[in-house]
Every structure is written in C-alpha cells, then in structure tokens.
Amino acid sequence: MDGFEFLIFIFSGYYSLNSIFRWYRRLGSMWPSGQYKTLKLTFGFLPAVSYAMILYTLKVLASFDVVGAFIYILFYIFLGFAWIFAGLYLVFMSFDLSWIDDAVENKNKAAMFAVTGAFLGLTIIYSGANVGDGPGWWCVLFAGGLGLIAWILLGILMNKFTGIFERISVERDIYCGIRFGCYLLASGIILGRASAGDWTSFSVTIVEFLVGWPVLPLTVLAIFIERFYINSAKSRERINNNYLLSSIYWGIIYVIIAVLCVMMFPLVENPAYDNLPVGLSEVVL
Amino acid sequence: MRSNLETYKIWAPDDAIWTQWAKPVLFIRQPDSINKVELNIPEIKWIQSLERNTMIIVDLPRHSGVEESLGLARLGYRPVPLYNGVDGPSLSTIVKVHDIVKALYKGADELVSCNIRADAPPVFMLDSNRMSGSGKQPGKYDNRWCVFPQDMPSASFIINQGINRIIVRSESIQNDLSHILCRYQKEGVDIYHCNGQTVRKIHVTQPSDFKSLSYRFRAIFGLTRNATGGFGSKIPEATQSSSSGVRYYGFG
Fold first, then answer.
1. What is the pLDDT of residue B139?
2. Is A31–B157 a contact, with Cβ atoms under 8 angstroms apart?
3. For residue A136, what are the CA distances in angstroms to A64, A73, A133, A141, B2?
C-alpha cells in the first residue's frame, strides 16, 4: 500500500465508521422509542446487507491481488461504505430524498422504501465496479462513477416525466416508494454489471460500460408504469388507492428484468465465475 | 407535570389523521417546572366557528403561537406542532424556544379538555422566529430551522379531506412557507391571510427555487442538524486565527 492509498484508507475509514455510527445513532434516538419498528429493522439491516455483498465481491470476484489480501479487503470495504454514504448525499442533492429528513424524522414509509432501494443500488454499483482485475482503487472509482452518474441521471429523467420525487417525499405515496425503490435496485444491478470487468484503459472501460444499455428500456418501462399510476389516481381523484400488490409485482418484475439482463451479458474473463457457489460458501464459512 | 410521552400523545394522539406530521422535537426534554407558566389563550374573533373546509397555519413568535392554537382548539380545530428547533442552553440559543416548550406542556391540560374529534381540521403551528438571527456564529447554539413542503400534508391529501381554504395567521408570509402555500394554490386551494383582525384572500407569489430539487438540500446545508433529530447544535468556538483564516475545534 503506497502513501496515497494509505491516506485514502484513513480518510475512507474515518468517514465510513463515522457515517455508520451516525446512521445507527439516528435510528436509536428516534422518539417515541417504542414505535417505527419496520423502519428501524429495515435500516438497521441495510449496512449489514451491504457489508455482506461487498465482502462477497471482494473475496470472490475482485482483482487477484485483492481477493486474498486482508488489508486491501478492509481498504475496499471502507471505500465502499464511504461511497454509499456519499452516494446518499448525492441522492438527497439530486433526488430531494433524504434518509434523515424524510425516512427517519418524517417517518415517511414511501421514502423508507426509496432510500432502501437507493442504498442497495449504490452498494451493487460499487460491488460491480470491484469485479475483475485492475491496477488500483481509481479504476473502481472510475468504473463505478460511470454507473453512479448514469444511475443519478436516469433517476432525474424519470422524475422529469413522472414527478416521482415529490410523490414520494410530499405525497408520501407508499406504493410509488416501493416501485421506485425496486427501480433503483434494478437499475443498480444493471449498472453494476456495466461497471464490472477487467481493467484495460479509460476509453475501453467507457466502451465496455455500454453493456448496461438495458437500463434505458427499463427506465422507459418504469416511466410508463408511473404515468399509468398517475393517470389512474387522477381518474379516481385519489392518490392513495390500494396498489400494494401490483406495486410489489412491478418491483419484482424490474428486479427480474435486471437479473436477466446481467445473465444475458455474463463476464467470461475471470475463471472465478465458473465457481460461484464455492466462493459463496467460502465467504459464509 | 405529565411525562414527555404523555404530553406528546395529547398533542399528537394516535387516532388523529394529522398526527403523522407532528414533530416531537420540543417534547423530548421536559422543562424544569411549569407551575408559574400562565397561558393567555385569546378568544378567537377572526373566525366564528369550526369550518370543516378550512385549514389554519399559525405562524406567530414564541409562545403566542401555542396560545393562538389553543384558542382555535376551543373551536374544535386540531393543533399540530411543527416546531423543529431543539431547545438548547438558554443564553447562547439563537432561537428562543424554551417558552414554547413550557407553553406546550402547560397547554396540554387545556387541550385535553377540548375533546377534539380525530378528523377535525388542523392548525399547523410554526414559530415565526425560526429563521431569526444570523447564521452559524461560533459559540452560539444554532437552532434555526425551516419548514419544507415535506413537513406538511400534500395538496391532494388536504383536498381529499375536504379542505379547500387555508388561513395563515401571521404577521407576514415567510419565504419557506410560501413554497408550501404556492403548491396548495396551484392545486386550487384558496389562501387567506389573517393579521389577527381581518381575514383577506391573497395570491402567493411563486418564490425563487420553487420546486427545485436542490432547494431543500441547500437550505438545510445552511442550518445545523441535531444528532438526535430536528435542528440545533453548538457551533464550535474559534481557537486560533492565522493568515489562512479561523480554525475550529471540529467540523462546523
């Protein structure tokens, strides 16, 4: 580990541990304390789920010089959590969705689902960027950065046609929150795949990133679905109709589409991909 | 004196439809004593009786907002506290909220006796001093706060509840509130302003950054969050000046 890597290690370690501490302190200080169990449980598990996903990637699918090196695994875990919490700031800035203000303080369940999707989406993009061989941390940030920018821009595009951010944060439309949360997760899966692969050069990484094109039709589909629900709500002159089941179905469909897209474009370079179940058992054990 | 949770549940009962917007920030820390607190609850003359199509926003300074809201509660309205600035050490606090806390605790007795219906139209309570005082001053407890569209019900929600008229009881319409009122106005809800004497219909001018995605982010960036909820935290003292500027103990 060179000097600059060490600096990043210290900074990301401090930032990620501090962010995780503040995350749990906010959950723990919610008042009245006996209430909001769903939110506390969901948000309480999110860092653990992200940790498991990043750790699995680093121990099985990451660069050959990272897979067996404890210090580098720790380095990329810290970097990953710094990425996620910085990403949540970006989500607040770009989507006007705040985990603190909307989900925790306003107890807005719609925002809880959206933030959960965003948290997992950010994790998967980062994990995807760690897949494959590469010369250093900056290739992870560059490849993941492409995915993150695309993920943010597509979210803003979706809002342009559907006004989805206000429907979640102001209308508190839970069903909309479920669908958008699943969309963020699904688009994160596709863009995570697009960010994955062995490093060759900046320009080739951009070209390889185009494998994530299915995120465009997914976004168009999500826009149509949201427009349908807006029109349906208007025609019935109510926003909060009971669309729970159909929203869950659409959410599952988004995720299935994303998984199918990833299967359509498998990574073939790394021999470890032939041995995924073994790798998984190694991480668990 | 009632416990903090009991008092909060009186102001924000579980069965009231507007409770989901109530903020618990000022209820978390009990005041030392409320025995000497005397509330001067006014007899409301600018509205005669409960009007089910009317929502009221009381935006008055310090405890007068609580008193006015209790006057409206006697008519059958449901007061909903939206105060979001933490009560800090009294000397260094930028926005004085201690008397609001005491009024809320004392006013709970009055509110219990009002027997307000669960579906009664709401009175949203704001402190018009919420953004008074200058920004982050070293050594001060910065508990300034803003109200955002996310803190109040949406236009479609209030319309679904049969509300088509909003009266803002205040000296003036503050910028942060105009972001909310403008949304209501665009959806066809009539906005009225009351100065305590007369009620007149107004047109709310669209504020700058209206519906901007980064408006709330930038507004909150200029405030100081409390680690446990709401706004309020001490701004670190300067320790040393140098040619490059002022240094602080920690992150401001």
1. 87
2. no
3. 11, 13, 9, 9, 60
- Which of A208, A222, A205 shows the shortest CA–CA distance to A258? A222
Q: Rounded to an integer, what distance in angstroms lies between the CA atom of residue A69 and that of residue A65?
A: 7
Inspect the interface and report whether the beta carbons of B5 and A100 lie closer than 8 Å: no
Structure tokens at B39: 């509330």
d(CA A166, CA A230): 12
- The token duo for B198 is 């007369």
Which residue in chain A has the smallest CA separation from B184?
A170
Pairing of strands B54-60, B122-127: parallel
Q: What is the pLDDT of residues A161-174, one digit of tens each?
A: 999 999 999 999 99
Quote ipTM for the complex. 0.91
Element (H, E) at B67: helix B64-75
Residue of A nearest to B218 (CA): A93
**Could you tell me how many helices (H) and strands (E) chain A has, helices first?**
12, 0
Alpha helices, DSSP H, located in chain B: 4-11, 64-75, 98-114, 155-160, 175-186, 215-221
- Residue to test with chain A: of B213, B221, B231, most A Cβ within 10 A: B213
**Bridging pattern class, strands B122-127 and B78-81:** parallel
φ, ψ for residue B81, nearest 5 deg: -70, 125
- Three-state DSSP class for B85? strand
User: Could you read off the pLDDT of B197-242 as tens digits, one per residue?
Assistant: 999 999 999 999 999 999 999 999 999 999 889 999 998 887 655 4
What does the block give as tokens for B154?
């949406």
Give the whole-angstrom CA distance, residue A167 versus residue A177: 8
Distance from CA of B173 to the nearest CA of A (A): 21
The answer to pTM > 0.90 is yes
Q: How many CA atoms lie within 13 A of A38 on its CB side?
A: 9
Token digits for A195?
A: 């960010």
Encoding tokens for residue B118? 């669960």
Measured at the CA of A108, the angle between CA A103 and CA A112, to 5 degrees, comes to: 50
Distance between CA atoms of residues A259 and A282, nearest Å: 23
Any A CB within 8 A of B215 CB: yes
Structure tokens at B122: 């709401």
Beta bridge partners of B55: B166
DSSP letter for each residue of A77-132? HHHHHHHHHHHHHHHHHHH---IIIIIIIS--HHHHHHHHHHHHHHHHHHHHHHSS
Q: Please say whether the beta carbons of B12 and B80 come within 8 A.
A: yes
Nearest to B213 among A31, A95, A105 (CB): A95
Within chain A, which residues score under 70 in pLDDT? 234-241, 268-285
- Both tokens of B75, joined, read 């008519």
Sign of CA dihedral A166, A96, A255, A203: positive
Number of A to B CB contacts under 8 A, please give it: 71
